[in-house]
Amino acid sequence: MDISFHCPHCHQDLAADAGAAGSTIECPTCRAPIIVPEVDPTTVHVVNPIATSAAARIERHFSVPIREGGTETLIESPRRGGAEPVAEGGPTKLRVRIFRHTDCVEVGHDRYEELVGCFLNKVGEANIVSVTPLSYTYVDIGTQKVLTDYAIQIIYRG
Questions:
Q1: pTM for this model (two decimals)
Q2: SS3 letters for 58-80?
Q3: Using alpha carbons only, what angle is made at residue 95 by residues 91 and 99, rounded to the nearest 5 degrees?
Q4: In sequence order, what are the residues at sequence separation of 6 or more whose Cβ sits closer than 8 angstroms to the Cβ of residue 19?
């Protein structure tokens, strides 16, 4: 919080941090020594900058529509970390799952083989169409270096 005060010699408007109260400073205008006054608790007014902004002065009334019945899902979130259920007796679709090595490293622990093995066991050997190793390059955001990494592409029926 700043303390606003006037130079007693040249009447220049000055402001100083509240932590400087009681210390001696030099007036930037007349170069006279000035003691920064103590904060008077009766004159301190805490101002909320958001409440005093121009946007806060505009009164708006919003209404929320009320609907009968349940909610509907607009966007389906993709499943992560596991196989989608395999349909029993119905038509099966070919699906693709790619495991990137960098996505499987958590807090210094490499879980790549564990996650790939778990996925393959859930899908089942009979539903796996192909397993293809991949190698790719990407730019690391932190170091701005081009790095090479590996992944695996699994095509399966599900």
A1: 0.43
A2: CCCCCCCCCCCCCCCCCCCCCCC
A3: 155
A4: none
* Structural domain spans, the chain: 2-56, 94-157
Q: Are 7 and 26 a contacting pair, CB within 8 Å?
A: no
Q: What CATH class does 2-56 carry? A: mainly beta
Which H or E run contains 121?
A: helix 112-123
Token pair in block for residue 30: 């007349």
Task: Quickly state the pLDDT bin for 45 (edges 50, 70, 90).
Answer: low
Distances (CA, A) of 111 to 27, 103, 117, 156: 65, 9, 10, 21
| 101/98 Cα distance (integer angstroms) | 10
